[in-house]
Amino acid sequence: MVINSKSLIKLALSLLLTLPFALQAQLYNFQTYSLDEGLSQSEVNTIYEDSRGYLWIGTSGGGLNRFDGKSFKVYEEKDGLCGQVINAISEDVNKNMWFGTRFNELCQFNGQTFTSYSKTNEKYFSGGYVEFITNDDNNNLIVIKNHEILLFDGKQFSQLEIRGDSLKYFDVNCYKKDSRNLIWIGTDQGLLVLKNKTLVRIADNEHINAANITSITEDKNGNLWAVENRSIFHKIKITGPSHYQVKATKIDS
């Protein structure tokens, strides 16, 4: 499970790692972890819990931390890690860990050694940077960069083009993998959705087409909620047999 809203992460971690808590003991029990407890750096970009229960913590210069509930193990470039600034973390179906960096590096960790995939695939990693990593409904690795979406099928990378759309350039802000294994991607040019290797931009001219989507989540009824410019809420409901047939309703504050 990944926490993918970076603004939320930075706020939560800054509270967790640097501020004392004065909460009622009968309601909350917080343990503070900081540099004194072995965390390599207090500025955290992303957190991911793997299938074994380890917490992987990507920092902004201190490399990677793995927390087993008791102590931190730190991985850095000297250990084979592909960079010190870790933006994205995910786990594939074979329980390998994947890490993306601020400087457009991508590497895999099998529990023993790191393998760089960006150095052998320079065509796809010559510019930009890795924002998020996840898996699609067919267990392909999806690498979401700041301006493009890549798919890795275990053998080769390919860039996903937006079907039936002239949009070529966009900035990625966030993503959400929902309960149907649909991958929703919020950009400065509207909302994208990915399923079966098909990337589509949601076309609802009344509401979210070309909107700057800064956050996405899903409610217990399977509805998506997209936030525009961190202030305007849109409720998104799938209305047809295709996942990209939706109705977006703007929620007035």
Give the SSE map.
Blueprint: E1 2-3, H1 6-18, E2 44-49, E3 55-59, E4 64-67, E5 72-75, E6 86-91, E7 97-101, E8 106-109, E9 114-116, E10 130-135, E11 141-145, E12 149-152, E13 157-159, E14 172-177, E15 183-187, E16 190-195, E17 198-201, E18 213-218, E19 224-228, E20 232-238, E21 246-251
Antiparallel strand pairs: 1-2, 2-3, 3-4, 4-5, 6-7, 7-8, 8-9, 10-11, 11-12, 12-13, 14-15, 15-16, 16-17, 18-19, 19-20, 20-21
Task: Write a compact overview of the structure shown.
This protein has 253 residues and is mainly β. It is 5% helix and 40% strand.
Describe it for me?
The protein has 253 residues and is mainly β. It folds into 2 domains: 1-158, YVTN repeat-like/Quinoprotein amine dehydrogenase (Methylamine Dehydrogenase, Chain H, 7 Propeller); 161-253. The protein contains 1 helix and 21 strands. The strands form 5 sheets. Strands 1-2-3-4-5 form a 5-stranded antiparallel β-sheet. Mean pLDDT is 87; it is low at 7-19 and 21-25.
Report the CATH C-level class of the largest domain.
Answer: Mainly Beta
Order of adjacent strands in the largest pleated sheet: 1-2-3-4-5
Poorly predicted runs: 7-19, 21-25
Helix fraction? under 10%
- Please tally the helical runs, counting DSSP H or I stretches of 4 or more residues: 1
Structural class by sheet pairing and helices: mainly beta
Count of domain modules: 2
What is the N-to-C succession of helices and strands? EHEEEEEEEEEEEEEEEEEEEE
Can you count the beta strands? 21
Query: Using only CA atoms, what is the Rg?
Result: 19 Å
What is the makeup of the main sheet? 5 strands, antiparallel
The termini sit apart by: 30 Å
In CATH terms, the superfamily of the largest domain is YVTN repeat-like/Quinoprotein amine dehydrogenase
Shape descriptor reads: globular
Instruction: Tell me the CATH topology of the largest domain.
Output: Methylamine Dehydrogenase, Chain H
Average pLDDT confidence is 87
Percent strand: 35-45%
